[in-house]
Amino acid sequence: MRIRKWYRRLNLSDQLVFWFLLLALTPLLVITVLTYRHSVNLLRDEVTRSLLAIARRQARQIEKYGEERQNDMTTLAYAPAVAALLNQRGSGGAGEDQALRTFLQSYGETGAYDDFFLLSRQGEVIFADRRLEMVGSNVHAEIYAGSEFQNAFERALTLLSTEFSDLSAQCEKIPY
Protein backbone atom coordinates (compact mmCIF):
# COMPACT_ATOMS: atom_id res chain seq x y z
CA MET A 1 0.00 0.00 0.00
CA ARG A 2 2.76 2.43 0.88
CA ILE A 3 4.60 1.54 -2.32
CA ARG A 4 1.50 2.23 -4.37
CA LYS A 5 1.12 5.70 -2.85
CA TRP A 6 4.77 6.42 -3.37
CA TYR A 7 4.57 5.29 -7.01
CA ARG A 8 1.50 7.43 -7.72
CA ARG A 9 3.24 10.53 -6.41
CA LEU A 10 6.07 10.12 -8.92
CA ASN A 11 5.87 12.12 -12.09
CA LEU A 12 6.07 10.34 -15.45
CA SER A 13 9.83 10.75 -15.93
CA ASP A 14 10.52 9.31 -12.47
CA GLN A 15 8.18 6.39 -13.16
CA LEU A 16 10.03 5.68 -16.40
CA VAL A 17 13.38 5.78 -14.57
CA PHE A 18 11.96 3.44 -11.93
CA TRP A 19 10.82 0.90 -14.53
CA PHE A 20 14.04 1.21 -16.48
CA LEU A 21 16.11 0.50 -13.37
CA LEU A 22 13.82 -2.36 -12.34
CA LEU A 23 13.98 -3.96 -15.79
CA ALA A 24 17.73 -3.42 -16.13
CA LEU A 25 18.84 -4.38 -12.62
CA THR A 26 16.71 -7.50 -12.16
CA PRO A 27 18.47 -9.53 -14.88
CA LEU A 28 21.81 -8.11 -13.73
CA LEU A 29 21.08 -9.28 -10.18
CA VAL A 30 20.02 -12.73 -11.40
CA ILE A 31 23.15 -13.08 -13.55
CA THR A 32 25.34 -11.88 -10.67
CA VAL A 33 23.88 -14.51 -8.31
CA LEU A 34 24.23 -17.28 -10.89
CA THR A 35 27.81 -16.24 -11.71
CA TYR A 36 28.69 -16.18 -8.03
CA ARG A 37 27.31 -19.68 -7.46
CA HIS A 38 29.10 -20.98 -10.55
CA SER A 39 32.38 -19.39 -9.41
CA VAL A 40 32.04 -20.91 -5.94
CA ASN A 41 31.47 -24.36 -7.46
CA LEU A 42 34.41 -23.96 -9.83
CA LEU A 43 36.67 -22.80 -7.02
CA ARG A 44 35.58 -25.70 -4.79
CA ASP A 45 36.21 -28.18 -7.62
CA GLU A 46 39.64 -26.70 -8.33
CA VAL A 47 40.66 -26.79 -4.66
CA THR A 48 39.43 -30.39 -4.41
CA ARG A 49 41.40 -31.39 -7.51
CA SER A 50 44.52 -29.65 -6.19
CA LEU A 51 44.27 -31.33 -2.79
CA LEU A 52 43.70 -34.73 -4.37
CA ALA A 53 46.73 -34.20 -6.62
CA ILE A 54 48.85 -33.24 -3.62
CA ALA A 55 47.59 -36.27 -1.66
CA ARG A 56 48.38 -38.60 -4.57
CA ARG A 57 51.84 -37.10 -4.99
CA GLN A 58 52.60 -37.45 -1.29
CA ALA A 59 51.27 -41.01 -1.26
CA ARG A 60 53.58 -41.83 -4.18
CA GLN A 61 56.50 -40.23 -2.34
CA ILE A 62 55.76 -42.25 0.80
CA GLU A 63 55.46 -45.46 -1.23
CA LYS A 64 58.70 -44.66 -3.02
CA TYR A 65 60.44 -43.96 0.29
CA GLY A 66 59.22 -47.30 1.67
CA GLU A 67 60.31 -49.13 -1.48
CA GLU A 68 63.74 -47.48 -1.29
CA ARG A 69 64.15 -48.53 2.35
CA GLN A 70 63.01 -52.04 1.47
CA ASN A 71 65.48 -52.15 -1.43
CA ASP A 72 68.22 -50.91 0.91
CA MET A 73 67.52 -53.76 3.32
CA THR A 74 67.34 -56.28 0.48
CA THR A 75 70.67 -55.02 -0.84
CA LEU A 76 72.12 -55.35 2.63
CA ALA A 77 70.77 -58.88 3.01
CA TYR A 78 72.40 -59.96 -0.25
CA ALA A 79 75.63 -58.01 0.18
CA PRO A 80 78.64 -60.31 -0.16
CA ALA A 81 80.36 -58.61 2.78
CA VAL A 82 77.43 -59.38 5.07
CA ALA A 83 77.21 -62.97 3.85
CA ALA A 84 80.95 -63.44 4.39
CA LEU A 85 80.77 -61.91 7.84
CA LEU A 86 77.76 -64.07 8.72
CA ASN A 87 79.55 -67.20 7.54
CA GLN A 88 82.51 -66.27 9.74
CA ARG A 89 80.22 -65.37 12.66
CA GLY A 90 81.03 -67.40 15.70
CA SER A 91 84.04 -69.08 14.11
CA GLY A 92 86.33 -66.08 13.86
CA GLY A 93 85.82 -64.70 17.34
CA ALA A 94 84.84 -61.28 18.57
CA GLY A 95 86.79 -59.44 15.85
CA GLU A 96 84.53 -60.54 13.03
CA ASP A 97 81.38 -60.04 15.11
CA GLN A 98 82.53 -56.50 15.90
CA ALA A 99 83.29 -55.86 12.21
CA LEU A 100 79.80 -57.06 11.29
CA ARG A 101 78.23 -54.91 14.02
CA THR A 102 80.20 -51.81 12.93
CA PHE A 103 79.24 -52.33 9.29
CA LEU A 104 75.54 -52.81 10.11
CA GLN A 105 75.44 -49.85 12.50
CA SER A 106 76.89 -47.54 9.87
CA TYR A 107 74.33 -48.88 7.39
CA GLY A 108 71.51 -48.15 9.85
CA GLU A 109 72.73 -44.62 10.50
CA THR A 110 72.91 -43.73 6.82
CA GLY A 111 69.49 -45.24 6.12
CA ALA A 112 67.71 -43.24 8.84
CA TYR A 113 65.94 -46.32 10.23
CA ASP A 114 64.25 -46.32 13.64
CA ASP A 115 65.61 -49.81 14.15
CA PHE A 116 66.36 -52.86 12.04
CA PHE A 117 67.13 -56.48 12.72
CA LEU A 118 69.07 -59.20 11.00
CA LEU A 119 67.65 -62.65 11.66
CA SER A 120 68.85 -66.13 10.80
CA ARG A 121 66.63 -68.53 8.87
CA GLN A 122 65.86 -70.23 12.16
CA GLY A 123 64.50 -66.96 13.60
CA GLU A 124 67.43 -66.03 15.83
CA VAL A 125 68.02 -62.29 16.14
CA ILE A 126 71.64 -61.95 15.00
CA PHE A 127 71.75 -58.16 14.93
CA ALA A 128 69.61 -55.38 16.38
CA ASP A 129 70.52 -51.81 15.59
CA ARG A 130 69.09 -50.29 18.77
CA ARG A 131 67.40 -53.02 20.82
CA LEU A 132 70.56 -54.85 21.76
CA GLU A 133 68.76 -56.94 24.41
CA MET A 134 66.94 -58.76 21.59
CA VAL A 135 70.17 -60.17 20.10
CA GLY A 136 70.26 -63.92 20.67
CA SER A 137 66.51 -64.23 21.17
CA ASN A 138 64.33 -66.16 18.76
CA VAL A 139 61.14 -64.92 17.10
CA HIS A 140 59.55 -68.28 17.84
CA ALA A 141 59.88 -67.64 21.59
CA GLU A 142 56.65 -67.23 23.53
CA ILE A 143 57.29 -63.54 24.15
CA TYR A 144 56.93 -62.87 20.41
CA ALA A 145 53.93 -65.18 19.86
CA GLY A 146 51.35 -63.45 17.68
CA SER A 147 53.39 -60.26 17.43
CA GLU A 148 53.88 -58.33 14.21
CA PHE A 149 57.60 -59.06 14.60
CA GLN A 150 56.95 -62.80 14.35
CA ASN A 151 54.42 -62.32 11.54
CA ALA A 152 56.88 -60.19 9.55
CA PHE A 153 59.56 -62.86 9.99
CA GLU A 154 57.20 -65.58 8.78
CA ARG A 155 56.21 -63.51 5.72
CA ALA A 156 59.86 -62.78 4.94
CA LEU A 157 60.76 -66.45 5.30
CA THR A 158 57.82 -67.58 3.15
CA LEU A 159 58.14 -64.94 0.44
CA LEU A 160 61.94 -64.64 0.63
CA SER A 161 61.65 -60.87 0.75
CA THR A 162 62.39 -57.99 3.07
CA GLU A 163 59.58 -57.11 5.47
CA PHE A 164 58.72 -54.06 7.55
CA SER A 165 56.64 -54.12 10.71
CA ASP A 166 55.59 -51.86 13.55
CA LEU A 167 57.26 -53.76 16.34
CA SER A 168 56.51 -51.37 19.20
CA ALA A 169 52.79 -50.99 18.50
CA GLN A 170 52.03 -54.71 18.45
CA CYS A 171 53.36 -56.27 21.60
CA GLU A 172 54.11 -54.50 24.88
CA LYS A 173 55.90 -57.60 26.20
CA ILE A 174 58.68 -57.20 23.68
CA PRO A 175 61.65 -55.42 25.28
CA TYR A 176 62.29 -51.96 23.98
Tell me what the structure shows:
The termini are far apart. This protein has 3 domains: 2-67; 79-112; 114-176, no CATH class. A two-stranded antiparallel sheet has the order 1-2. It has helices at residues 2-9, 12-78, 80-88, 94-111, 148-159, 167-170, and strands at residues 117-119, 125-128. It has 6 helices and 2 strands; from the N terminus they run ααααββαα. A hairpin with a 5-residue loop joins β1 (117-119) and β2 (125-128). It has 176 residues and is mainly α. The chain is rod-shaped and about 110 Å long.
Q: Quick gist of this model?
A:
The chain has 176 residues and is mostly helical. It has six helices and two strands, in the order ααααββαα. It folds into three domains: 2-67; 79-112; 114-176, no CATH class.
| Helix-strand string | HHHHEEHH
Low-pLDDT residue intervals, each spanning 5 or more residues: none
Give the domain tally.
Answer: 3
Profile the largest sheet: 2 strands, antiparallel
The gross shape turns out to be rod-shaped
Number of strands: 2
Q: Report strand order across the widest sheet.
A: 1-2
User: Distance between the terminal alpha carbons, to the nearest Å?
Assistant: 85 Å
Radius of gyration: 36 Å
Estimate what percentage of residues fall within beta strands.
under 5%
Portion of residues in helices?
Answer: 55-70%
Rounded mean pLDDT is 80
Number of helices: 6
Q: Output the structural class.
A: mainly alpha
